[in-house]
Fold each of these.
Amino acid sequence: MPLNLTDFNHFYIINKVCGLEKQRHYLEALGRKEFQIYFQPKISGKSQKIASAEVLIRWKRADGELWFPDSFLPILEETGEIEALDYYVYEAAFQWLANRRSAGLKLLPLSLNVSPVHFRKIHTFTKKVLQLIQKYEIPSEYLVFEITETTYIHNIEAVNSMIRFFHEQNIRISMDDFGSGYSSLNTLKDILFDEVKIDKRFLSDDLTEKGKIVLQEIFHLLKRTNKFIVCEGVETKEMVDFLIQEGCDELQGYYYYKPMEMGKFEELIA
């Protein structure tokens, strides 16, 4: 039975109320530091050892429930309050690097996601990141900021401005979800990104011969433009073998590791 206008309004209001409730809880949780950073290792295609990691976020609520990003990030993106959460994640990651450095422990490059909201005031963003780097005195070469292809397409000038600034600080920039946008191949010749992260939709379990040919062509283009290649969503041995054969620099996915808490990650790289 199709929904009528009254039903639609009812569901819309419920969703809005739920969203506002989550927003209120989020602000309280941020103050209580209920958010925790998780690490998902990325594996070197050559050595098959952990080479770096992506930093992700989980909401460990006071009631013990663990919330994944899909349940709260869309609301924060809509309200713009994801900006504060990004800085929270950056500071936690920088502090982790600083603590390990002061203890003489092994450091690994960390990839951090950049939300589209930051490109509305890009100079504030770059200034804030630089302040955090200086505060924790961490080597900038251990930082990689990830920006989705869609964000790039809609904010080309601001993204390029950010990349140029971060390159001066010896910070690398990765294009995340490459292949999810409509202009991937057209933008390859112009992008300033150091790294390209292939969208997991290219890496389905039933990858066909035609699919492999497409990936091979993308790899060929990326290699010719000296881009570091990362593939995410890697889940099968067949896919691992194919990607290594084609020269993928780093692999990330459940075939190797799921995102994990800080303590487990530290045990893994000890």
Amino acid sequence: MPSSHPIFQHSRNKKTGSRGSRKLPYMLLLCICCVASYYLGMVSNWITSQEDLTASHSAVLSADTKMSVQIEKLNDEIKRLKSARIETPARSCPECVVCSKCPTCPTTTATTGNTGTDTAASPTSSAKPLAGSWVSQGVVSTDSLIDGDIGFSLGIPPFYMQTAKQKIDSALVLHHRAPKSASISNPNSLDDCEEVDVVITKRDSPGHCLVVMEHYQSYTLHRYMRLNRNAEKGGDNKASLDKNFEKVGRGRSTDGSDQFKSPDIATQKKHWKHLVQYFESYEEVSAELDAKLKKIVDVNNDVIVMVANAGMIELLANFVCSARSRNLDISNIIVFATDDVSREVVDGLGLTSFDGSRSFPTPPEEEARAYGDQTFQKMMYVKVVSVHMALSLGYNVLFQDVDITWQEHPLAWLRNNQATSGDDFDAYFEDDGARSLRYAPWSANSGFYYLKFNRRTSYLMTNLLYESDNILVSHSHQQALSSVLNDHSSQYGLSLKVLSREQFTGGKSFHHDSPFMLSWMKGEVSPVIFHMCWTLNKDDKLKYMQQMGEWFLKEGGDNDYVRKMGKKAGEVCSLEPVITCHFSDKPSAEVAKCSDSPRKDKNGKIFWN
């Protein structure tokens, strides 16, 4: 403010004492105003802060309320999804196949159609979440896995409960997370699966558990059993809960028996000698075989391999005669004849014979007296060698035993079936019919099978040759083959299919399926082939085939007669079946109805009653 202002001029004109006394009230008033202003500001700030705090608190309370509602909704949704995951598979199947939380059905039912005793669901039971990274479980039809309706076919035959003769209808499926989504669209399908690992395990066995462990992937089943596997001979080696777990192989049963024993060193050395004989002669013998196969192979690169000795020669003759009576082409057959007598008869029947005796120990001329005897084992080894050699030369091979007759040509049927169904398997096998542990899971019959030549099938037969000492231990070509099939299916992706028993019929149906056999004898159905397996010895085979109309040798055409005919063996053929009754309780042709014949089995039921 400029010094010329009237106030300043006025104050300068006053005396000194008067100036000090007049200034005091002014300063006091100024201080009071400052203090009042300060406290008024403090009060104003406090009021403002309280309003802000109240507003903020209200906002927080509002947000908390909204969040609580959202959390409650999420919890309800989680409960709903858990309930849906547990209960949906149960609702989707008629008898609650996967039933962890289902009040109207038993908790232990694993498959539909189960007639066994089931444990009722406990009212207090609660479902446990799936372990590991499994997110869902469901069920699929076993028929779809076998028939291929699900996208692939396991190729195995159906399995029926031995007691109730009831088929197992469904299989459990565990799902990992879907590849492109966190959820599974349908747990009762494989629609969300890029890879499927199938575990085929035993059915309804008390005390049996299955552990599915997420780890470094293994494609082999690991078995443990509570028993003493090193028990002394005659000791207690049965499974029981009071024993410790021990590692066991696929052939071990709870009764203590072991159907897959390792060959001992003596058996191995014996087998080594056989292999040395085979491989030392292979180049020379296989060249001779190839020269003959080139003359008979058909346009599809197929050859048919058979093995015969003098003791079984009339069965071979019957096969030839039956095929010719039905106008079926057998020109691409080669017979590994193991002795001079059988080679002469084979030539007399108009087939191509082959002497491969330099490649294997010479079997006896007589027939096997029983399944698994020494003659049987030696002939089984020849069957391995013959198929291996033909397959190694690049041919597709149909192998069959001599106790077979054709109703139609099996190779033509297989080609037509592949064309219509789209089947494209590496190998096809007759269904043996047995459902025993040692043949699981395919029950492939080693007496009739077809192998397409490729790397997988050729190496299959090479490994079977390498492991033929298992034939010596188990007395079974079929058991050794079953073991190798399992290994090669898993390790190399070998694909195989077991053919229907209604179309490729064997001894199991003959002895244990009277309704089917009756339909056949009446002409209502007709299989592609018939294989007289499941029969104790050759004498019984002949009698059964004679009375069912599958015998085509003239009367008196027994083994001795066929041998004597030699180069003229073709003259033993009859254009019509020669029917002779033997047993009333075994299948017989309708024109004969052997009801007046004696029973074969003590309590056998008359077939035509």
Amino acid sequence: MKLLVVIAVSLCFLLLRRPFPALAEEPLTTVRPTDTGAVLENPGMGWVLHFYDNVPQNYGSKLAPSDTVDDFPGRTVVYLRIPWSVVEPEEGKFNWAVVDSPGQRWIAKGKQVAFRFSCSESWMRYATPKWVQDAGAKGYDFEPGKGVTEGGPFWEPDYDDPLFLEKLDHFLAAAAQRYDGSPEVAFVDVGSFGVWGEGHTYASSRLGFSADTVKKHIDLHLKHFKHTLLAANDDFVSQDRGDSTIEYAQQKGLTLRDDSILVQGGKNAYFHAVMAQAFWPTVPVILESEHYGGSRDRGNWKDGSQYLQAVEDYHASYVSIHWWPREFLEETRDLVARMNQRLGYRLRLTEAAWTTGSRAEGALQFTSKWRNAGVAPCYPGGFPALTLKDAKGGIAGVFVDEAFDVRSLPVAPPGQAATLTQQATFTCPFNLASGAYEVYVSIGTRTGTPTIALPLPADDAQHRYRLGSLTVRGHYEVQLGALTQAGDQWLLPLTWTIHEPLPEGVQPFCHFEQNGRIAFQGQPAEGGPLADLAKPGAVDLGCTFSVPAEAKGGTFTVRVGLWDPAELGRPDERMIPDHGDQERRVLAGTLTVPAEGVPSLQRPQPEPRP
């Protein structure tokens, strides 16, 4: 298919412009970059900082408004897990500032937010707003560890109650109006079922709601969040509900999150890695560790290596900072560093080769070899782009291979992922001037906008990475002789060095400009070897001109070049010089025409060539 596209594009190109004879294959520049070990912050992956963790004081309350924990390597998401009642204390009256205020701190740094709105907590009576109960919704008093208890300190709704579901429906509609489809939001948990929003009632009423109940809550979220990634909890299968809830979630396009890794230690550190296998090939899997301090103090955490192993087994893209963030970082820094090398996707360029010197409007070959050194696919996808920058850092050319999507790179255990090769041949655009260029590689959109950070050096701060350089050659070079008089005209001798066969009919032009306009022109010297300009080699053929009467007393900029009259009015009517301006002309100097006497030509000062 790729070959057919290349052939079709090539045929269209030949039909639209003059044919240049084929040249010998150009030599290639080849580089083999090594992984810098850099921590990558990329879309659809990273560390998730629990700012609100059900209890609003955990774990962002110690952070000043200006503190976004920038020193934590790889954090990309701030997680706001908060009871519904905190956001909607009165029916229809919302306090979105509770989540938007901290959220904006991270959004301003280019990060994302994620949400869970819970309906049952073991530390406050009404996670579901009290006004929902007052309106007649059914529910149960409970005591943690005992279940339903008359007069218990906490209240949990009947998750099937129609009135409760109606009020929840309205709340989710309001939330989705603000957050669904927003690029600022990474994911939203289906958190309306179970204590802490975890999909079970072990620490609340202990009532065994059915799989159909869970599906109702999934459907309510899907009804309103049509674009943002939704997350199903692994504990949806608990309390004898079976796998149908998770299978349903997977069929509906949800992802999986596992709460909590390392609640226990050893072989019971986690239970549902097999469950994740249905999800990770298409959506990013989310892992949440047990509260770090609790796991540590019970002796379950040890060196944390099972958290890293869970990343491998679940093919996880997101992992949690489930504790006071700086304490967690200080005590697990080495673990964090190792996890950052495997978490999500890590696109490695192992080799790149490109045409060392391309002719103007000629072919530019680009070959690259890529490997995904992470545990998960690059879900956003992206396409390799080769960008050429001039000496001032300006973007002169962008070439994207749309036939190669990095989403297709396979994943495997450390060091075992297969390498895929991308190959493309691009045509230099008509307005790419000849000269030396810096070569950059990136992964991003079809239009060449970088979107993915790579573990490469020489980042231009926009995720383009310098690989080397190349030279774009023009069709010819020209040298000037001394201005001489030829009868009643003047002759500007020109020696053309033609690099490659040119179309028949090519001839010189000579412009005399004043104030940016062509005041008069020269013509090819009569009897000169015009036909030789179509052949490679040196050709002596100057331009003659007469000085109009109105030009006397004036000064004119002289520019010369080659053009094809058969292409008049088309972008490529002029041949491209080795060193010229954007209009494909070479500066020949300044002609001064005195009111009386002989005109003189002052040569331009030579410019340093790159």
